[in-house]
What does this fold into?
Amino acid sequence: DTEVTQTPKHLVMGMTNKKSLKCEQHMGHRAMYWYKQKAKKPPELMFVYSYEKLSINESVPSRFSPECPNSSLLNLHLHALQPEDSALYLCASSQDRTLGEQFFGPGTRLTVL
Amino acid sequence: QKEVEQNSGPLSVPEGAIASLNCTYSDRGSQSFFWYRQYSGKSPELIMSIYSNGDKEDGRFTAQLNKASQYVSLLIRDSQPSDSATYLCAPKAGGYQKVTFGIGTKLQVIP
It folds into this structure.
C-alpha cells in the first residue's frame, strides 16, 4: 500500500463547530505532517510528528489540535475556526523526519462559514 | 530574500518542446532538493529528488543541481499537455529540518 488517505474530502463547518480531519498511511513511515494550502500558494507546514511525538509546531493557533494515536494515523481536531482558515488541508508522510521525500494525501477541502 | 525563489509563470511551451523550470535558494545548508508536481485542485506529487551536484535523469525529466550557485532546475523533454501543472521546488537542509516549498511555477503545454 503506497498511498496516504484522508477523510473527509470536503468539510463545511460553522465557526462554533468541532470537527476532525483524519489521515492514514500504511507504508511504515515514521514521520507525518499537516500542511495548509491556500489558492495559488505553496503548502504551509503546520505540524510534524516523528515516531508519534510532536516534533514541530509552526506556531499554529490553538484552535488546531493535532493528534497521532499510532504510527499509521494522524488527526487534526478543529474548534472555533475562522473563515480565513478555509483552505486545503494536506497530510503527508515520509520514511522519517530527516528525509524530504514526502507522500501527500489527496487533502481535505475545508470551508468555514 | 525569499528562502526559495521560483518564477510563478505561467511558462508556456509547445507540445514536444523542452520545458525548463528554475529555482534558487538562499540556505547554503540545503542538502536535498525535491521537485513536486501539483495539478490544479490536487495534492503535490514527488517527481524528482537530487542530492549531489550535476544532473539526474528519470525518463523525460532531468534535475540539475549547482550548490555553489544555489540553483536547481528541472527539465522536461518532449513536453506533453498532461505535464501542464504547477511545479514546486523544495530544498531541505540536513538533519531535522523542514522542507521549504517555493511558490511554484505554473507550466502550460500548448497542443
Notes: The interface with chain A takes residues 32, 34, 42-46, 49, 88, 90, 92, 94-96, 98-99, 101-104 of chain B (CB under 8 Å). DSSP finds no helices and ten strands in chain B. The mean pLDDT of chain B is 94.
